[in-house]
Each structure stands twice: as C-alpha cells, then as structure tokens.
Amino acid sequence: MTKSILALIALATSAYAQNAVIASPSAGSTLRKGQSFTVEIARPEFPAPSKDVSVVIGLQTCVLTDGSNSTDCSVLTQTFGFLLYSGDYTPTGHPDAPQGTFEDYQNFTFTVPTNIPTGQAQVKAAHLYLTGAGFIPVLEQFNVTVNVVN
Ligand SMILES: *[C@@H]1O[C@H](CO)[C@@H](O)[C@H](O)[C@H]1NC(C)=O
Ligand SMILES: *[C@@H]1O[C@H](CO)[C@@H](O)[C@H](O)[C@H]1NC(C)=O
Ligand SMILES: *[C@@H]1O[C@H](CO)[C@@H](O)[C@H](O)[C@H]1NC(C)=O
C-alpha cells in the first residue's frame, strides 16, 4: 500500500470518529438498588456507509474488597462487573438535538442489581462500529461514575 492510500484511510477514520457517550445517567447520579434506571447511549451524526454494530453495557462496583467500604474507581480496569446488555445498537434520531450534537441515541432500561455493594460504581459501555468505505472496525469504551444506595 502506498503512503498516500494509508494517509487517506487515516483521514477517513478520523473524519468518521464517533465518540459516542453515555448521555444518561450523568456523572454523580444516584442509583437505588432494585430500581430501574435508563442508560442512554448517544452518538454524533454518522455518515453512511459507516455502520453501528453493537454495544456492551455493564455496572462495575468501585468498592474495594478489603472490607473497608472504600471506593476507588481509578483502579478499575476493563472489567464490566454486572453485564447488563450485550447486543445490537440501533440508535434513532433525537428530534430536539441541536445540529452537530448527539443526534442519535438508544435507551436501555435495567434494574440496579440488589447484590451490588453500596458506594461508587461505574456504568461502563463499549461500542463497536464500522467506519468508512472500507468498514474498518473500531471499538470505543467509556464510563460514568455513579453512586449506588440502598
Ligand atoms: C460496609 O457497608 C455496609 C452497607 O452499608 C455495612 O453494612 C457494613 O457495616 C460496612 N462495613 C464497614 C467495614 O464499614
Ligand atoms: C473511565 O472514563 C475516564 C474518562 O474518560 C477514563 O479516564 C478512565 O480511564 C475510564 N475508566 C475505565 C476503568 O475505563
Ligand atoms: C431516553 O432516556 C432519557 C434519559 O432517561 C430520557 O430523557 C428520554 O426521554 C428517553 N427517550 C425515550 C424515547 O424514551
């Protein structure tokens, strides 16, 4: 492959970079055990032929296992803790979204597990999509920190 083709591919990849977000819950939200909560995965406008594939959503406690009830989300790695969802991601348009922002989203509703420790936790998501005319697979991961209460 020539350098110019590689450069084109790099350009195409960055042009279609998605940077989806967890639009809800917001950082610092309170999740109550046993109650339902909605995870909204949103992404900016997505030009064809790029294609969404799937998302994985998890709830990972930050409570350390030393019995002290202290929390430290910074020590988390790529684990997803309670696996809440893994499957298709088919976001639809958000009529109220200002142009160029997070126009497409999909809501997923879950029950907060009753056996997760109280304290800080992270809602974690991974998003797999195919970008550009060459359908290059990209996996992005993101999270928000929330508080789990009884
Ligand atoms: C940890 O938190 C749980 C639930 O709030 C409580 O029952 C327990 O006593 C706490 N343990 C310590 C060591 O503080
Ligand atoms: C969670 O998101 C923050 C901010 O994007 C990032 O710095 C951190 O590495 C992520 N943590 C994990 C465990 O993925
Ligand atoms: C999706 O979830 C968000 C956050 O809870 C909410 O504001 C929005 O109305 C929901 N959209 C639909 C179509 O249910």
From TrEMBL:
Source superkingdom: Eukaryota
Alphabetical keyword list: Signal
Signal peptide positions (record): 1-17
Matching Pfam families: Nis1 (PF19271)
- UniProt name for this protein: Phosphatidylglycerol/phosphatidylinositol transfer protein
> What organism does this protein naturally occur in?
Steccherinum ochraceum
